[in-house]
Write a structure and sequence with these properties.
Helix content: 40-55%
Shape: elongated
Number of domains: 4
Strand order of the largest sheet: 2-3-1-4
CATH class of the largest domain: Mainly Alpha
Order of helices and strands: HHHHHHHEHEEHEHEHEH
Radius of gyration: 24 Å
CATH architecture of the largest domain: Orthogonal Bundle
Strand content: 5-15%
Distance between the termini: 41 Å
Largest sheet: 4 strands, antiparallel
Length: about 240
């Protein structure tokens, strides 16, 4: 988005404050990637946002860029994929130049592009069953009965990737602590640690508590976990999740 709006600046060295920059990003995103909002409404609301949050003059600035884009979107010229592969990948997939260069050097352009595409996908919702309160059989039966599609974790059987949008069965699963929302990769350190009943575990930078609570379940609530975090507010979240 930053790359796109630079084509519509009157001067390439013009200074843009952070708030205006983010407002421009919001406006361009609506024009380019959404089809439910009429272009006129998107421009009008974005301009009003700039006037209200920054200054009236910034509203005119945002209005000019967005309307110029609508009049002439072909003005944006992307780097040639064959001649400037790294620049193309960085711009098209919205990644820092240094990161794309590093990946291309390590993995090659084709694999790098696959990594970038994968990295831009929205993450799937993952439930980790809490064996202290629920079983695999109870969870799968409840999911099946409510037509919630899922697949079990690739590496950890306690994790279930939910394909249904939103937070399905929140009142029956999440709120009573029968499942914990946690990415499967976050459970791998616990698997490697292999905690057992009566172990004593020290968890540094423990909040919000995913690994600590998973370890506690593996220990069948028998043992001691010392969970430490520098942020008191995040520790409160850990206590709530325990």
């Amino acid at each position: 988005l930053d790359f796109i709006y630079t084509f519509y600046l009157t001067r390439p060295d013009v200074k843009i404050d952070k708030v205006t920059r983010n407002i421009l990003r919001l406006g361009l995103y609506q024009l380019i990637f959404t089809d439910r909002i009429p272009h006129g409404a998107a421009v009008s609301e974005t301009v009003n946002l700039a006037r209200g949050l920054v200054h009236h003059s910034r509203g005119s600035f945002v209005n000019a860029i967005l309307r110029n884009y609508l009049r002439n979107p072909e003005k944006v010229v992307y780097p040639d994929k064959d001649e400037k592969t790294e620049a193309y990948l960085a711009v098209y997939h919205s990644y820092p130049d240094w990161f794309v260069k590093y990946c291309c050097d390590e993995f090659g352009a084709d694999k790098t592009e696959k990594l970038l595409v994968r990295g831009n996908r929205p993450p799937t919702l993952t439930y980790r069953v809490n064996h202290l309160r629920f079983s695999h059989e109870q969870l799968t039966e409840l999911l099946d009965r409510n037509n919630v599609e899922y697949r079990q974790g690739k590496y950890l059987e306690d994790f279930y990737h939910i394909t249904k949008p939103g937070l399905p069965l929140q009142e029956k699963l999440v709120d009573p602590g029968r499942v914990y929302i946690q990415d499967e990769s976050a459970g791998l350190p616990v698997k490697l640690l292999n905690p057992r009943p009566r172990n004593h575990i020290l968890d540094l930078a423990a909040a919000p508590g995913g690994k600590s609570t998973y370890a506690a379940a593996k220990m069948k609530n028998q043992g001691l976990i010392t969970a430490v975090d520098i942020n008191n507010n995040r520790l409160e979240t850990l206590f709530a999740n325990a």
